[in-house]
Specification:
Largest sheet: 5 strands, parallel
Strand content: 5-15%
Strand order of the largest sheet: 2-5-8-1-9
Number of domains: 2
CATH class of the largest domain: Alpha Beta
CATH architecture of the largest domain: 3-Layer(aba) Sandwich
Structural class: alpha/beta
Number of strands: 11
CATH topology of the largest domain: Rossmann fold
Helix content: 40-55%
CATH superfamily of the largest domain: P-loop containing nucleotide triphosphate hydrolases
Length: 329
């Protein structure tokens, strides 16, 4: 089957024109953090949820809130605490004394962009209620099931510093997040600009430049981005190298990996690479797209052994080794 790359390329260039406008609006508020903003857009375009890890004060909440303003969607920030209940998240039945009937009061999850702040501060019951909504994209209250409005995206944050009094997400639940981002401190000149902006006493307004319909349309176009079978096989080699390191000439990694990446890694790596190419206004995927997004898709899907911990080797180190070792097609 012959593929008209030029036609796809032209279509992608046309359909991705809004990306620059969105970036320009978001960066009116957010200084730097290009990596985080780009990955949030990839999550939106791929219908995939995102786990953000970083110390407090790195504009995680502000970035998500600004993005929701720019794309005209409803935004809800939910602060996860140890006393939070599933009903606080999903909603509950309220008894109306006048009518003698129960009515549904919908919870904050009935929105488009959800920021689950410090998700590991709430117990498993609340975490699983959120993750069910993420997977099924529907909520059941009593005997009624409600479909969630598209686009529906959960951005959950974790604070890597404090581990006391937290409930770490089980590995199977972490695997449901398409990307896990590691947010770092801004550069010196960026922090200077942040400080000056935030102490000027002036509020910065952003305009809504894209509608949810545009995002849903762009999602369909992302699927049209061309990927050669050689790159499909390249993805499979990367994922399988995390499961059978010896077969790929990485014998020294075998004792360090307890469990490799799941099949969700292959699916999400392909989708995210297509979105990465789309954001660069390209109608085809290159191995560089895979390498650029590989760490974000894989870092939370590899479970290391005690031996790796003893040697101070983490999942990121393993993913980097694999990405550098596997031959590029």
């Amino acid at each position: 089957m012959s593929v008209d790359i030029q036609a796809i390329n032209e279509k992608i260039q046309r359909e991705s024109a809004f990306v620059e406008t969105v970036n320009a609006e978001v960066h009116k508020v957010i200084v730097g953090q290009t990596y985080m903003v780009e990955r949030l857009l990839i999550g939106l375009l791929c219908n995939g949820h995102i786990l953000l890890e970083g110390v407090p004060g790195l504009a995680k909440t502000l970035a998500v809130k600004t993005l929701s303003s720019v794309i005209q969607t409803k935004f809800q920030r939910i602060q996860f605490t140890p006393d939070l209940l599933p009903a606080d998240l999903l909603g509950t039945l309220i008894y109306n004394q006048k009518t003698g009937e129960f009515s549904v009061r919908k919870g904050p999850i009935f929105s488009n962009l959800i920021l689950a702040d410090e998700i590991n501060r709430s117990p498993a019951k609340v975490q699983s209620a959120l993750l069910e909504a993420m997977q099924e994209r529907q909520i059941t209250i009593s005997d009624h099931t409600y479909k969630l409005e598209e686009p529906f995206l959960v951005m959950a944050t974790q604070n890597p510093i404090e581990q006391e009094g937290t409930y770490p997400l089980p590995e199977a639940q972490v695997d449901r997040f398409m990307l896990k981002l590691s947010i770092s401190y801004p550069k010196k000149d960026e922090e200077l600009e942040i400080m000056q902006r935030m102490t000027s006493g002036q509020s910065i307004e952003v305009k809504a430049v894209v509608s949810p319909k545009d995002i849903l349309k762009a999602r369909e176009v992302v699927h049209e981005v061309y990927m050669d079978e050689k790159i499909d096989r390249y993805i499979i080699d990367i994922v399988f190298a995390t499961r059978n390191a010896e077969e790929y000439g990485l014998k020294d990694l075998s004792p360090l990996i307890a469990y490799g990446a799941s099949p969700r890694a292959s699916i999400n790596l392909k989708l995210a690479a297509k979105a990465h190419a789309f954001l660069r206004r390209r109608g085809y995927v290159t191995p560089e797209d895979i390498k650029a997004i590989g760490l974000d898709v894989l870092r939370h899907r590899i479970i290391v052994t005690y031996e790796a911990e003893a040697e101070n080797v983490n999942a990121e180190d393993i993913v980097r080794r694999v990405l550098n070792h596997i031959e590029v097609p």
